[in-house]
Amino acid sequence: MTQALYELDRVSKRYGRENPVLQEVSLSVSEGGTVAIVGPSGSGKSTLLNLMGGLDVPTGGTLSFAGLDVSSMDDRARAGFRRDKVGFVFQRHHLLPQLTALENVLMPALARRAGRDAAALDRGLQLLERAGLGPRAGAMPGELSGGERQRVAVVRALINNPRLLLADEPTGSLDATTAAGIVDLLLELNRRDGVAIVVVTHANELARRMNRVLELRNGRLSPVA
Ligand SMILES: Nc1ncnc2c1ncn2[C@@H]1O[C@H](COP(=O)(O)OP(=O)(O)OP(=O)(O)O)[C@@H](O)[C@H]1O
Ligand SMILES: [Mg+2]
Fold it and tell me: How much is the mean pLDDT over the chain?
């Protein structure tokens, strides 16, 4: 049995006076594990991912990442957690249009002020290379295809070497072939670097490529047979 990287214990989330979106959701993500989360629109998939990434706080339950109690962190600690421990990829790439692919990739490393620019630059170039984008490192986002931009976004999410990558419909705006290429990249990074992946997707064929597929429905999470 692999060690748990992330443990969610009866996590609930309610926005204002609405019915709770998440009702006592428990989930264990193992070190280097891959999990797909599926479910109808509005079922709370993004809400769950945002809680896991420290973008929002639960109204009940605990989230514990490698022994760190994320649910009890103050804003400042949560910002640090977000920056150093997890990588995010969204449906839209959110690249800054006035920076090159490589500069976009290096942004989270700058935010960290690690003071090791050379190491970050090295890693950025290496990751771009592995994503098949070596020759495009100096291109502006506007000069890249949708799939290339999304690959840059994946690389950017990994620049600080997080142990967990959270991806919210990362292939939602891509055609099937390009989408499969993004999933190939995610799984290659998982295998080679051991980064755990939690991906939200509407595409069943992509979900099935992860070790586990869970469905969120009526506030609850259950395995898909
Ligand atoms: N910040 C917020 N304030 C209030 N309600 C919210 C907020 N964010 C999400 N919700 C509500 O919570 C519910 C779940 O939203 P969420 O975005 O998590 O769903 P989802 O499963 O990601 O849907 P989709 O597949 O369409 O992206 C929805 O009813 C939504 O309106
Ligand atoms: Mg969503």
Answer: 93
